[in-house]
Amino acid sequence: MSDLLTDVLVVGGGPAATWAALKAAEDGARVVLADKGWCGTSGATAAGGTGVWYVPPEPAAREAAMASREGLGGYLADRRWMARVLDETYDRINELAVEGRYPFPTGTDGQPLRGGLQGPEYMRRMRVRVRRAGVRILDHSPVTELLTDRDGAVAGAAGHRRQAGELGRAGRRPARAVPRLGQRRHLAGRRGRRGGAPPDGERRRAPRPPRGGGTRTGEVLPYDKNYLRHGEGLSEALRSLDAGWAQLRARLHGEGAGLVKARQAAAMTAHARWMYASALARTESRGMARRLDHPEQDPAQHHRILAGGLDRVWAGPAAGRGTGVAV
Ligand SMILES: Cc1cc2nc3c(=O)[nH]c(=O)nc-3n(C[C@H](O)[C@H](O)[C@H](O)COP(=O)(O)OP(=O)(O)OC[C@H]3O[C@@H](n4cnc5c(N)ncnc54)[C@H](O)[C@@H]3O)c2cc1C
To answer: pTM of the full predicted structure?
Structure first.
C-alpha cells in the first residue's frame, strides 16, 4: 500500500484530465494524475483524429454554432454550458498552438486551420506539458474507489497500481479518508457507503465472475436492443440486467487486479440499467433518442431525464427544462 499526499488528485488521462492537471499545477498546486491506462495514449481522443468546436468569438458565428447543436440534441441543450465550452475550447486550442506548439495546418488563405486535431500528437504534447508543469503521473493505475473524510466530503481515492502490483491511495488526507478501516466490505458497495478497495492487509476471495457474466454486453451491444429501441425490448433487457445486478451484489468479490475487474463489471451493469431506465422514461423520439414504439417528438416531454440508484434504479424528468426552443 502506498499513500500519496497531494493538493489535487486528477483521475483520468485524456483531454479533460490533462488540461485540469496542467491548470492546477500552473496555479501552484501539488498535483497527482492517476490514469488506468498510459496518459498520452489512453482515452478516445488519443487514438485518432478529432473534430474541435473551435468557433471565433463573433456573435453571429457563436449563435449559428449553438443553434445547430440544439437541433441535434432535441432542444435539451443548455446554452450557458455551450457558451462556456465554446469560450474554453477557443482559448485552449489557441494556447495549444502557441505554448504547446501544436503544428496546425494552414488553409489556402494562409489562415491556420484549428477545427481538428490529430489525437496521438495532441495527447503526446499534453503529457509532455503536464510533466513539465510538475504533475506526478501514475500510469496504469485504475481508481476503484473515492474516499471521504469524516464530514463525508471526497478527500481522495484508492486504486490499484498495476505495475507495482499494489494498492495505492492519494488525496488531501488519505490516511484519514478510508471509511470503516479494517472492515470487510462488498465490492458492489452497499447503500449509503462507498464500497470497494480492501483495506491494507485484508484478504479476500479470488475474483469469481457471477453466472451469466456476458449478460451486460449481451443486453447492451446488440443493435436490435440498444439502437432499434422498443419499449418491450428495453423492459426485457432491463429485467435481465436487474437480475445480473442482484448476482453481482451477492457474489462479486476481488482483490488486486481482480478488484479492478469486479469494479468494472459493477460499473458497466449500473450504467446499463440507468441507460435503459432513462430510455423507458422517454416515451417519444427526440434528438438522437429514438423509440420505434414512440416515433414522434412529444412537446410535453421537453425535459431532461435524470436517473440513479443502485439496488433500486429510478429515472424521471429533471426539474429544469431544456433552454432551447421546443418544436
Ligand atoms: C469514436 C469516437 C469519436 C469521437 N469523436 C470526437 C470528436 O471528433 N470530437 C470531440 O470533441 N469528441 C469526440 N469524441 C468524444 C471524445 O471521447 C471526447 O471529446 C474526449 O475524448 C473526452 O475527453 P475526456 O478526457 O473527458 O475523456 P477520455 O478521452 O475518454 O478519457 C478518459 C480517461 O479516463 C481514464 N479512466 C477512466 N476510468 C478510470 C479510472 N477508474 N481510473 C483511472 N483512470 C480512468 C481513461 O484511461 C482515459 O485516460 C469521440 C468519442 C468516440 C468514442
So the answer is: 0.85
